[in-house]
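User: Here's a chain of 358 residues. Predict its fold as tokens.
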Amino acid sequence: DKTRESVSTYYGQVLTKSTDLKTSAACCSGAPHPVIAKLFATIPREVTDKFYGCGAPLPLGVHGLRFLDLGSGSGRDCFAAAALVGEEGSVTGVDMTAEQLSIAREHAEEYCRQTLGFKQSNMTFIHGYIEQLALAGITADSFDVCMSNCVVNLSPDKPAVLREVYRALAAGGEFYFSDVYCDSRLSDDVRENEVLWGECIAGSLKIEDFEAYAVEAGFCSPRILAMSPIEIYEASLRQLVGDAKFFSITYRLFKVDVSPEQDTAVNPFAACYKGSIQGMEDAYTLDLDTVFVTDEPLRVDRDTALILQGGWLKKHFDVSLRGAQHFPASGKRREAKQVVMDVCAAATAGATATAAAC
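Assistant: Prediction complete.
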């Protein structure tokens, strides 16, 4: 309760705009997809000014789907999702901060009617805690996609969040979200710092710990879609965290049947992307190491096949056992530790090149 109160006060009263933040956690992600960026430009200024996130966790090709946003805040991602799912879809935002919910509710109806041309709003905003979605009225198996933007790390009980998301997702659903993670476990001094809690640093999990929690909750093998390092601006806070390195990561967690009945070594799968997602007509990136070029089949492992065949992506892919061995294999997925090493090496190389240019 103390953690929730501190976080709610920080986001509802201490921060008045995104430029008040003391780390790059809410602005370290790369540019969003052009389709998403165009939608962001249509959202009311008051909504975007109160946005605090570390990515743009909005998948494309989701028309007609049911979206759930954890820690929706002022609603920026919900507003964009409302446009992506259309009138046939729905978007539900859950947040514990009254000030943020008030902003989202104030603009939702007008945005849907006047900007999107809908007959009525397809957005609903609910007060509640992300560890207790059932108490907020979120029923089991009722959403196709759950998204979250730099919020799970603020929870005092992250395994409970993952369990609740898994419960709320329908079969084949996905948790598509950005958050802050660390390459090591943090000291009590860091975890008890209220500013670092509000900045999404103190609550960040070690990457390997998070992935273990996700699998325990029932999700298929976690997929990393994007990763970038986070910078801490204030010297005193940098000194407090020491050598710990922090990253903004966009993860994809799928709720699909992962029973071991199928043996991929004997029965490899072939998957082919149809090019049917607007804005991704030429290729589709499932994760950092798995990219499908339109109409070019790839040999994939069992988990990837299950995700593409049993999830919301199935209408965009053809998956087959026939002739799979004749197609090129998709890239081997790197473990999280290797991705961290690669991202750090790239950041160091970039800093060196910048210094040399100066």
